[in-house]
Structures are given as structure tokens and as C-alpha cells.
Amino acid sequence: MTALSPREILDRLVAFPSVSRDTNLPLVDWVQGYLASQGIASTRVPSPCGTKAHLYAQVGPAVDGGIILSGHSDVVPVDGQAWTTDPWTVVERDGRLYGRGCCDMKGFDALAIAALVEGARRPLNRPLQLALSYDEEVGCMAVADLVHAMVGALPKAAAVIVGEPSMMKVVTGHKGGVGFRVHAQGYEVHSSLLHTGVSAIMESARLIQWANERNAENAAKAPNPLAADFVPPFTTLHVGMIEGGTAHNITARDCRFVLEMRVVPGEDPEAWAAAALAEGARITEGMQRIHPGTQLQMDRFFRVPPLTPEENGAAEALARRLTGDNGNHVVSYGTEGGQFQVLGGYSTVICGPGDIAQAHQPDEWLSVEQFQAGWAFMQGVLETLEA
Ligand SMILES: [Zn+2]
User: Fold this and answer.
1) What strands lie across the sheet with 365-367, from one edge to the other?
2) Is 109 a catalytic residue?
3) Cα(205) to centroid of ligand 1, in Å?
4) Is 136 part of the annotated catalytic residue set?
5) 164: closest CA among 173, 155, 156, 176?
6) How far is the CA of 107 from the centre of ligand 1 (A)?
7) What pTM, to 2 d.p., does this model score?
């Protein structure tokens, strides 16, 4: 089979509706089959439930010092969005490529797959590695398995490029994140007998007030140097959804809310998570003094380590040389970069085509110009590996 162009690969990838809640196996099957048709072996890392898989591959000599191109295969849903084109077909119009995932981030995936195929035919002195994940859009948790598999099976790469849309700017940091679903389970009595009941709403308010106090404390202290470029330059805690109670005169039996924490580099998301859990346990103790069986139940549903700007990082140096970008960029969205950096010990930056503003939108698009800039970047990657 002759090699496909990056654009042809993009057409194929977008045609798979690989929404995070659904399987990505048809997409992985296709990528694995296409790579095999080009003489490239690849390895799956199946999800625990078996309905999804990560995929990694390597071309070039099996030596240390290569480059990893990291992308995710999943996309966000199109439900309820007013698309003017078929989201699962790439439509080119006025210099733009429309389709779900064109920007976030099948455009980069297509470029990375095309680069791998080209790399297999060129005299590389160091390897090019592909990391294609699932479940990025639902909390970036799954990629840990992929990172561990690659560390265990492949020679250690010198740099990881996470191709999330950055307009080909070199992004060296983002905040980490932790999310909890909280279910306060109180005890219903008539509110006139408040002292014998446990209001799930009012107990929830204690944890929410704890979050408010942490925000005020964080805002008041001097930012750590690794956080200085962020807006705001401190860790924030936020409750974006809450529901509970049945009547104004009944202590609420149930209250549910979501607590998210955006943690700056230089601070440990695990420590923040532990602090929230400790506060929840303290509140539960008070609830149970009034009525046993009541509690604040806290379930963690996402964790994303921060991407920390590196001192003299190899990935940053590479991406700056290839793009000519010397600006300081940090972003407010989470990526899988933190896992590569923290779990894999890889030097990591974000650099990919397209603007995050178009991600997740109806009529998501990637400009042809950015797609071409991404391909020029891949040529630079291949030349670097030949040197
Ligand atoms: Zn993305």
C-alpha cells in the first residue's frame, strides 16, 4: 500500500466517531493496520474493560535519545451542537478543515502517523515514537498505563511533544487538576427540630466554605516562581454544580456537588486532594456525632498532574529550535503532558497545530496553514533524528 498523505490520514481518523464514552478500537484497528501495511509494528495497551486501547510504535534504531509524538484518539461529543457540516467528514472550505477532532487533536495525530511512516524510510540515528491514547477528554487518567508501557518497552526518548492545539507555540506549563464528586448524606427531620437532624446542604457548605478560605489564602500569598506566569498565579478551588434538598422545612437528606482544584506547578495535586479528603473526614465526624450513618462521601473522578516548566528542558529546546518561538507560554487547560513528565520522567512540552478556541466547538476547524506548519515541524523532527 502506498503511503497516505497527512490529509488522507486525517480524513480516515475523523471518520471514526471516537467519542470518549465509546470504543476507540475501530480507530486503533485502522491505525495499526495502516502502520503494518507500511512495515511498522505497533503495540496496543488495552483498557481494563477491553473496549478501548492505547497504541504505541517506534521507527528507527532502538537507542535512547529519540522523540515521542503524543496525541489522543478520543474526541468530545457533538450532541446538541449545531453543526453545518457532517462532523465525521473532513470538509475543506476557505482554508479551513472542518470536522470533529480536526483541531483537538486528530490533525496532530495524522501528522504524527505520517511522520512515523516517513521516518521508517529515512536513515534515522535516533528513534521516532508514537503515543496514541484514549480517554484524554475525560480526565487524562488512562494515559498513565501508556506511559508505563512505553517506559518499560522502548528505549528512553529525550523529548515528548504533546500536540495539543497551541498554534505551534511552545507551551511549557499547565496547571494540574483534581476533581471530586461529593455526595453528602444527611438525616431528615422537620427543620424545627434542626438540632436532631443533619442537613446535607449545610454540611456541604462547610466543605465549600473551606474551599473559599483556601482560595483567599492562596490569593494572598506570594506566588511560587513556577506559577508566576499563570493567570491567576495560584491554586484555585471551585464548585461548579450543586443540588440537594426537597423542601424548605426538611433538613436535606442528600446534597451532591462537584469540587475541582486547579493546582499550579510547584504544588502537589495529591497533597491538595489529601487536604480536601481530610476536611471531608472532619466534617463527617461532626455529622456522625448527631446521627450515625451520615457522611460526606468523596469520589475522585479526575487527576491531572501539572506540566512544570523545566530548566534547560530538551523538549523545550527542540520545539523552540523547530518553531522559532521564544515566547513564554503556559495554558489553563490540562493535557497528558504532566503524566509523561511526572510518571515517565520525560522532558515534555506542548506544541501542536490549531487554536484551542476551536476545540470542542460546533464546526470545529483547523486551518490548512496550521496543518502545513505542523507538517513542517514534523520534517524538522525527522531531520533532528537523522543528525
Ligand atoms: Zn485535546
Assistant:
1) 91-93, 96-98, 365-367
2) no
3) 34
4) yes
5) 173
6) 11
7) 0.88
